[in-house]
Amino acid sequence: MRDDTRMQIGQVAARTELSIATVRHYDEVGLVTPSARSAGGFRLYTEADIERLLVIRRMKPLDFTLAEMKKLLDSLAILAADTSSDRQRKTAAAHLEQCRAKATDSAARLRTHLAYAEELSELLSVRASEAVRRV
């Protein structure tokens, strides 16, 4: 798919595995503004917009706030821009490192929660099997 290809919100929702309502919400709160609008006023998104949505989708289960998401997206944009100053790039890189550390901590917490859920599932499976044998 070419970089200048524009997609409507339904296509974007399918590609990102986000609901249309969620994509609209991220537009309303200023996280991902569509790159264009059709003559009929429909939101049109590019590959770059989809990449922003995918970053948000990855951040959401790690308990990043909307403000943290915005700041990270802004930092990524600064690092991608040829016009950013050295100071802007240094500040953005430092922020990315902070977000990386938070993501690592959140992922570790989620792994622990997953292990607990798997333990409970196994316990319930064993108890259900025992109960069926007694009947």
Describe the secondary-structure layout.
Layout: E1 7-8, H1 9-16, H2 20-28, E2 36-37, E3 43-45, H3 47-59, H4 66-80, H5 86-134
Question: How would you characterize the overall build of this protein?
Answer:
With 135 residues, this protein is mainly alpha-helical. The chain contains five helices and three strands. It has helices at 9-16, 20-28, 47-59, 66-80, 86-134, and strands at residues 7-8, 36-37, 43-45. Helix 4 packs across helix 5.
At a glance:
The protein has five helices and three strands; from the N terminus they run βααββααα. It has 135 residues and is mostly helical. The chain starts with 6 loop residues before the first strand and ends with a helix.
Structural class: mainly alpha
What is the strand content?
5-15%
Number of strands: 3
Along the chain, the helix and strand elements come as EHHEEHHH
Main pleated-sheet profile: 3 strands, antiparallel
- Give the proportion of residues in helices: 55-70%
Stretches where pLDDT is under 50 for at least 5 consecutive residues are none
